[in-house]
């Protein structure tokens, strides 16, 4: 007899679901995975989009369903909640490290009230300039390093 998948199985499986816009991040790294519950063999996953109109959410929901069915859950329910609103403070430190390694400057804590310079993820210089408030996606801004002259995205604080 095969045992039913557990909460640990669900969490392990969800650690393989990546954000389609920033593929180095899992949904857990990004902080959009809010809750996972298993009851009577059914799994319910609660997610919060980075913003209410995020076009990646349908894809992410489909990947969650596919991944959990792949580890043996027949009954998968994905709930989207908008409140409280997602914040970059929910990103994991591991996720922020992955962003830096990928060449995207990670967000600063939203509690910072000073406008601190954005550090270049390529050379580490703080001598950077914002080129455009909107980068390759709405959640990123485009910057250029004045030291190494490389362009880079900055994941905006929300």
Q: Can you offer a commentary on this structure?
A:
- This protein is α/β, with parallel strands linked by helices and 158 residues long.
- The protein has 2 domains: 7-80, Fe-S cluster assembly (FSCA) (GMP Synthetase, Chain A, domain 3); 92-155, no CATH class.
- The protein has helices spanning 7-14, 27-30, 57-70, 93-102; strands at residues 33-39, 42-47, 75-80, 104-105, 128-132, 140-145, 151-155.
- The strands form 2 sheets. A 4-stranded mixed β-sheet has the order 4-7-6-5.
- Strand 6 (140-145) and strand 7 (151-155) form a beta hairpin.
- The longest helix is centred in the middle third of the chain and has 14 residues, at 57-70.
- The protein is elongated and about 60 Å long.
- The mean pLDDT is 91.
Task: Furnish the topology, listing elements before pairings.
Layout: H1 7-14, H2 27-30, E1 33-39, E2 42-47, H3 57-70, E3 75-80, H4 93-102, E4 104-105, E5 128-132, E6 140-145, E7 151-155
Parallel strand pairs: 2-3, 4-7
Antiparallel strand pairs: 1-2, 5-6, 6-7
Short structural description:
By secondary structure, the protein is α/β, with parallel strands linked by helices. Helix content is 23%, strand content 23%.
- H-E string: HHEEHEHEEEE
Please tell me the overall pLDDT. 91
* Shape by Cα distribution: elongated
Unreliable stretches (pLDDT < 50, length at least 5) are none
CATH superfamily heading of the largest domain: Fe-S cluster assembly (FSCA)
User: How many structural domains are formed by the residues?
Assistant: 2
CATH architecture tag of the largest domain = 2-Layer Sandwich
CATH topology of the largest domain: GMP Synthetase, Chain A, domain 3
- As laid out across the biggest beta sheet, the strand order is 4-7-6-5
Structural class: alpha/beta
Strand content: 15-25%
Query: Which oligomeric form is depicted?
Result: single chain
Distance between the termini: 48 Å
The count of DSSP E runs of length 2 or more, i.e. the number of strands, is 7
| Rg from Cα | 18 Å
Largest sheet: 4 strands, mixed
Number of helices: 4
Could you estimate the helical fraction of the residues in percent? 10-25%
CATH class of the largest domain: Alpha Beta
């Amino acid at each position: 007899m095969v045992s039913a998948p557990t909460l640990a199985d669900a969490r392990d499986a969800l650690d393989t679901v990546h954000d389609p816009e920033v593929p180095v991040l899992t949904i857990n790294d990004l902080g959009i995975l809010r809750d996972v519950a298993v009851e009577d063999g059914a799994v319910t996953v609660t997610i919060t989009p980075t913003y209410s109109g995020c076009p990646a959410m349908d894809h992410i929901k489909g990947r969650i369903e596919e991944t959990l069915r792949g580890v043996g859950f027949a009954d998968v329910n994905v709930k989207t909640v908008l409140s409280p609103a997602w914040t970059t403070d929910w990103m994991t430190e591991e996720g922020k490290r992955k962003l830096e390694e990928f060449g995207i400057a990670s967000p600063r804590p939203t509690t910072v009230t000073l406008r601190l310079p954005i550090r270049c993820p390529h050379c580490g210089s703080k001598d950077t300039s914002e080129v455009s408030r909107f980068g390759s996606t709405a959640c990123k801004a485009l910057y250029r390093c004045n030291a190494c002259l490389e362009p880079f995205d900055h994941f905006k604080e929300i």
